[in-house]
Amino acid sequence: MEYVKAIKADNQKIFNLVYDKYHSQIYGFILQRTQSTYIAEEVTQLTFIKLWKQRHIISEQLAINIQLFGMARQVMIDLLRKEATRFKYEGDSAVTPFTDSLIDAIESKDLLQLMEHDIQNMPKMRRLVFELSRKQGLSHKEIAQLFSISPKTVEQHIGKALLQLKQHLYSIML
């Protein structure tokens, strides 16, 4: 969080430190998803440019690495969409390396990973109740019997879990 405050205060030394620390990680993250060194290089550079341009509006509530990877993911998706559109309008549809299905697959995989991470970080009982309900398909009554709690308590755990997931997803989309 200290990095965020320093960058928001126009501290270029800290920005350079963050750049040095996360450049190769962002590059690897994008390269793994796209298998393109060109796109990985472009997205990495554009991500740090975006960070500097938007430094005054970045969140002090989230660590810099979380915000950087979120920006990189969004920049990657934007770039892939632009490439797909460019190929489409150039009429070279037989050689389209990036399609909407690729973009959708990347978005879905990233979203599932984020959600799974959030679920694993929930309080133990909330996580267990949520997983039994959503992943194993047990009813509220069945879960209540399993843990000797009321169905209303099960409902509250699930409601809190969903709210936690929604809030985190909303904060990422900003």
Automatic annotation (TrEMBL):
Organism lineage string: Bacteria, Pseudomonadati, Bacteroidota, Sphingobacteriia, Sphingobacteriales
Gene3D superfamilies found in the cross-reference section: 1.10.1740.10, Winged helix-like DNA-binding domain superfamily/Winged helix DNA-binding domain (1.10.10.10)
SUPFAM superfamilies: Sigma2 domain of RNA polymerase sigma factors, Sigma3 and sigma4 domains of RNA polymerase sigma factors
RNA polymerase sigma factor 70 region 4 type domain segment(s): 119-165
Domain of life of the native organism: Bacteria
PANTHER family assigned to the protein according to its UniProt record, in alphabetical order: RNA POLYMERASE ECF-TYPE SIGMA FACTO, RNA POLYMERASE SIGMA-70 FACTOR ECF SUBFAMILY
UniProt KW keywords: Sigma factor, Transcription, Transcription regulation
Domain (RNA polymerase sigma-70 region): residue spans on this chain: 19-84
InterPro entries with a match to the protein in the record: RNA_pol_sigma-70-like, RNA_pol_sigma-70_dom, RNA_pol_sigma70_r2, RNA_pol_sigma70_r4_t2, RNA_pol_sigma_r2, RNA_pol_sigma_r3/r4-like, WH-like_DNA-bd_sf
Similarity comment: Belongs to the sigma-70 factor family. ECF subfamily.
Name this protein carries in UniProt: RNA polymerase
